[in-house]
Amino acid sequence: MDKFTQLSDEQWRQKLSPAEYYVLRQAGTEPPGVGEYTETTTEGIYKCRACGTELFRSTEKFDAHCGWPAFFSPLAEDRIIERKDESLGMVRTEVLCANCESHLGHVFEGEGFPTPTDLRYCINSICLELEESPVE
Ligand SMILES: [Zn+2]
């Protein structure tokens, strides 16, 4: 894998658009309902927009009506990092790409969604890139 974790802020700024940089590298959040993948049901693999690592599959995406793409599980446990986030006066679990350590969103549990895990990986569309392909 490339050494994405060693890129400087300046290198990230050149690689990403300002909006991508804000969410991926400054842990921003895109407004609800505007992301390009919020309602997408196309089959495929969602990759990290910063480094291209395959993170989520359409088969684990579900409609949580929360305004952002929601997944009940990552493609594999080792594709993401989960870390405690106490910003904004809340305790949440931040989700990052394990390869480039870019911010992706947050994961919430125990909300009662009828999914196999009862987890909701709430991921910003702008952090993802959908590669359309049949998923087993
Ligand atoms: Zn990444």
What does this structure look like?
There is one protein chain. The protein has 136 residues and is mainly beta. The chain has a single domain, classed as Beta Complex (Metal Binding Protein, Guanine Nucleotide Exchange Factor, Chain A), CATH 2.170.150.20. Helix content is 10%, strand content 31%. It has two helices and nine strands. A hairpin with a 5-residue loop joins strand 1 and strand 2. The protein is globular, with a radius of gyration of 14 Å. The site of zinc ion has 8 residues, from loops. Its EC number is 1.8.4.12. InterPro entries: Met_Sox_Rdtase_MsrB (IPR028427), Met_Sox_Rdtase_MsrB_dom (IPR002579), Mss4-like_sf (IPR011057). Keywords: Oxidoreductase.
pLDDT averaged residue by residue: 96
How many separate helices?
2
Q: From the alpha carbons, calculate the radius of gyration and give it in angstroms.
A: 14 Å
Instruction: Specify the CATH architecture.
Output: Beta Complex
Catalytic activity: L-methionyl-[protein] + [thioredoxin]-disulfide + H2O = L-methionyl-(R)-S-oxide-[protein] + [thioredoxin]-dithiol
InterPro entries: Met_Sox_Rdtase_MsrB (IPR028427), Met_Sox_Rdtase_MsrB_dom (IPR002579), Mss4-like_sf (IPR011057)
Keywords: Oxidoreductase
Protein name: peptide-methionine (R)-S-oxide reductase
